[in-house]
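Still learning. Any example?
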Amino acid sequence: MTERQSRPRIPASWQPAAPEREGLWIFTRLRDFIDDIANTSPARLALSAFAAVCLVFTFLLSLPISSATGSATPLHQAMFTAVSAVCVTGLTVVSTAVHWSFVGQLIILVGIFVGGLGTLTLASLLALMVSKKLGVRGKLIAQEAMNNAGRLGEVGTLLRIVITTSVVIEGVLAMALIPRFLVLGEPFWQAVWHGVFYSISSFNNAGFTPHSDGIVPYETDLWILVPLMLGVFLGSLGFPVVMVLQQNGLNWKKWNLHTKLTIQVSFILLAAGTVLWALMEWDNARTIGPMELGDKITHSLFASVMTRSGGFNLVDQNHMESTTMLLTDALMFAGGGSASTAGGIKVTTIAVMFLAIVAEARGDADVKVYGRTIPQGTMRVAISVIVAGATLVSVSAFLLLQISGASLDRVLFETISAFATVGLSTNLSAELPPSGVYVLTALMFAGRVGTVTLAAGLALRQRSQLYHYPEERPIIG
């Protein structure tokens, strides 16, 4: 046998591994890593995904092309703006219209749209894009984010519905705003840009404006104000509610409990906020005092809608009465609907706690509403969300008081606005040193992802126990 005959035969199609294989190997490892996190710790995936998105937009906004002057933006300003956009807050340390170029404003707008989808939605989309599938636990988290709006196998469909719904509503709002900007004398492409910007900013409850003086010039223009209010209100209801309304219309009997509570409490807060804001500011010469009756009502309704997460304002927040600022603090902390673009502790949390108080006062063993019993686990989650929110606000307010030396009412106002991702401001954000800016940045991030992730995580952490310790009731109150 010759040497050539003794060698093993190698298939003609075989080729040595190309250098590109290394890149594919890294992608495969990344895919497996993300898939593993999605199935074992979806809350960690949600936090990681949102943090990564914030870092990407921070880098983009720090580039010279993003600023109007062509110079790089300092890190604390770029990061604050990026987090404010992705967390759909609306607080700013620099003027959106003056500091940022068109590219910078476009980056902010994309950040608002992406952030408006929500942390758990982004995490689910990331897992779907990278691993092409969601594990059972990943689907449970995504389904929880949609408030069990569909069966477990329909999670991918639900995520597509979320994105489609956002695009459609924002498109309708833009078509309502663009003609008005054209009538007001703006060039065609500028009117299109402003219409698209305001539609995305309003539906996502972001509060960013491309005008240096905001929407104050349109304070009596209902063609501008009404679409903005509708966009903010629809966005604050949440995707689960919007999907139920799409499927069942206004048929109250077919609505699930979440939809009933969200819409009912939202309208109660809207009406109460409008009346109370009007009563407190009716004679204030620095806000709506000198206005006509119709304009006073419009301002009051607009303020009530925007206070719970919209972030647009028609009056200087520093000129409001102290009682009005306290009312605004309470409405901001309440926020909007769960799985929505609004922030705060959410209206369903308030509803559950109110119902629990009523049940306790009546001596009822169960918390019941609309023929349904609310599980004990849901009430524990509600308590956790409220306590976590109050703790975040308290700690951040303490730090800002030490850093800024500003008055408590301004610090508390800015802190709650950041936590609840509202965006209303007394201009304290722009006056803070970098250390204070980083505190608010962390608070915006925690306010957007913290309570939502906590609620979803706790909802899936119920363990069955085979034993119970003896009961002993401590003295309460």
Q: What stands out?
A: The two ends are 98 Å apart (CA to CA). Residues 67 and 100 are 4 Å apart (CA to CA). DSSP finds 20 helices and two strands in the chain. The beta strands are 367-369, 372-374.
